[in-house]
Structures are given as structure tokens and as C-alpha cells.
């Protein structure tokens, strides 16, 4: 199966540490992950499960953390029905931009089909929700 990669970027009105912590804290993560049920163990090789409410149904997602650099980067595997069992890679960067954070979500190894391409819309919606949550 052919795969695609996508990258989404936003400038967030918060420090990289704040945005990274919100990515790793299950309670904060749940506030912008579309009403999801979340189980997270955010340590290297720790597992996570996210059951997202989207388009009138539940979408289970799961994987493990590959690396965590506090305030800088989180890299994790990402599997769901929409990846057709492929273990895609989510690499989230948090870079300082003055008093703000440049958030970059890079998702690689997605199936090159409608399900894989729809991740772009999903990550854009999530990046917008993160920006809105941190708006001052």
C-alpha cells in the first residue's frame, strides 16, 4: 500500500512547555481531542488509547510513545481504523517563537487513500482547537 505524509503547523499563544504538557496530560488532551475517552501512559514505550467522538461514532486510536523531549517534541505511533492496521508515526514539535509556540504536527506513513488523507482535516481541526484553548 502506498503511504502519504502530512504536516500541519500553528502558532499557539503559549510557551512550548505549556503546549507540550497539554499534549501529554490526559485531562488537558481530552479538552481538545473531540470528547475522547483517553488512557495515557506518556513515557517512552508507554501505551495510549484514545476513543474519539467524531461524525456520530467512536473512532478508537492507539499506539505507544517512541520518544519524549519535554517542551520540545513528542513522537508516537498512531493506529486506527483509518490507518488500516498500519502503524503510522506522529511527530509533534513545540518550538519557541518569542512568548509563543510554533506547533508542528507531522504524520507519516498514512495510507494513500481517502481515510489517510482525511487525517489532514482532523489535524487541522485539532490544531485550531489547541490554538483556541490557549488564546489570550
List the helices and strands and how they pair.
Blueprint: E1 3-12, H1 16-24, H2 26-32, E2 37-40, E3 47-54, E4 57-69, E5 73-80, E6 88-97, E7 100-111, H3 114-133
Antiparallel strand pairs: 1-7, 2-3, 3-4, 4-5, 5-6, 6-7
Helix pairs in contact: 1-2
Provide a descriptive summary of the structure in words.
The chain is an alpha+beta fold and 136 residues long. The protein has a single domain (3-133), classed as Alpha-D-Glucose-1,6-Bisphosphate, Chain A, domain 4. The chain is built from 3 helices and 7 strands; from the N terminus they run βααββββββα. It has helices at residues 16-24, 26-32, 114-133, and strands at 3-12, 37-40, 47-54, 57-69, 73-80, 88-97, 100-111. Strands 1-7-6-5-4-3-2 form a 7-stranded antiparallel sheet. Strand 3 (47-54) and strand 4 form a beta hairpin. Helix 1 crosses helix 2 (26-32).
